[in-house]
Design a protein that fits this description.
Blueprint lengths: L2 H18 L25 E2 L4 E3 L7 H7 L3 E8 L2 E8 H8 L19 E6 L2 E7 L5 E7 L5 E5 L3 E7 L2 E10 L2 E12 L2 E9 L4 E6 L4 E6 L3 E6 L4 E6 L9 E4 L5 E4 L4 E7 L2 E8 L9 E3 L14 E3 L1
Antiparallel strand pairs: 1-4, 2-20, 3-4, 5-6, 6-7, 7-8, 9-10, 10-11, 11-12, 13-14, 14-15, 15-16, 17-18, 18-19, 19-20, 21-22
Length: 312
């Protein structure tokens, strides 16, 4: 199995482990992501101005595994003109993306009773997206009084996005050899909601951020940073050779640099003409704190991609 696919599998397995714990909070990822509440992290925000710059690791290297098996995932945010980060555990990161069944019993029924979900309030009630990874998902409408509902589609929603008065969502799945995603538009016609595809993505949608008034930046397929407008026009801005790993969030700094919060590192994309130079930033002292090591590889040579790695 190629290293990138190994990354997606290990990340998915961790998501499912966390989902089974049925975390109980809902928070927001970016300003236009629709949710309630605020995730409380065990760490305070800090600046990355003193962080060490690393070259992106080779896929399958020990450092690559360190990022994909990290205990802490960095969430990036822009404070004025400064990029700050906050460390989240995997359980806290789950709370950023999904609302638990325990906190929204009004949306629990049948086979979807225990599914993680996101919801958004609309004029005539609520639109609810259920998503349980490889076990599927659905998109439903609920009346405000909870007495009626209907299925809109089988999409597995990861985010809702408002653009003016319009409602959009990102949906998709990455599991084993399956990797797909899209932007859909939710529309109410003749009193009933429906979903239609606006753009097919290069893979499962990851975190996004609004970029100007008409576009978003979104990670697709785990390794591509895409600029996408609400008409469906898209352009791949950067493809990361090692992938973005456990990407949690994106911001664009005033100087045009793009920062991606990920496991153990923050990935910085520095504009260079029409392309970007990729750098990995790590907090001082964390470079030697990796729990992964090559198995049976002499210390005087670099591990080959196919040689095993153990992460304690």
């Amino acid at each position: 199995m190629p290293p990138k696919d190994q990354s997606r599998v290990c990340v998915l397995s961790n998501w499912l482990r966390v989902r089974a714990a049925d975390a109980a909070k809902l928070s927001r990822l970016v300003v236009l992501a629709l949710g309630l509440g605020v995730t409380v992290s065990t760490q305070a925000s800090e600046s990355i101005s003193t962080w060490k710059v690393l070259a992106p690791p080779k896929p399958g290297s020990v450092q690559w595994y360190c990022e994909n098996f990290a205990d802490i995932v960095w969430q990036v945010a822009l404070k004025g003109e400064t990029v700050e980060v906050k460390g989240l555990t995997f359980e806290e990161l789950y709370d950023v993306y999904f609302n638990s069944a325990a906190r929204t019993p009004q949306f629990s029924f049948g086979k979807l009773r225990d599914f993680p979900r996101r919801f958004v309030e609309v004029d005539d009630g609520f639109v609810v997206g259920y998503n349980k990874g490889e076990w599927g998902g659905k998109l439903y409408w609920f009346a405000r009084d909870g007495k009626s509902r209907y299925r809109i589609s089988d999409h597995q929603v990861t985010e809702f996005v408002r653009h003016g008065t319009d409602l959009y969502a990102f949906e998709g799945l990455s599991h084993l050899g399956l990797d797909h995603g899209s932007m859909i538009k939710l529309e109410r016609r003749d009193g009933r909601w429906s979903a239609r595809t606006i753009a097919k993505l290069a893979g499962e949608p990851g975190p996004y951020v609004v970029d100007g008034s008409e576009r978003v930046l979104i990670i697709a397929g785990g390794d591509k940073l895409v600029s996408l407008d609400f008409a469906g026009t898209q352009r791949v801005l950067h493809e990361s050779a090692p992938g973005f790993g456990r990407a949690s969030s994106i911001v664009r700094a005033p100087d045009g640099a793009i920062f991606v919060g990920a496991g153990r590192v923050v990935i910085r994309l520095v504009p260079q003409g029409s392309s970007f130079r990729e750098q990995w930033l790590i907090r001082p002292g964390d470079a030697s704190a990796c729990k992964c090591r090559a198995v049976g590889v002499p210390a005087d040579r670099e591990k080959e991609p196919w040689e095993p790695v153990r992460c304690d």
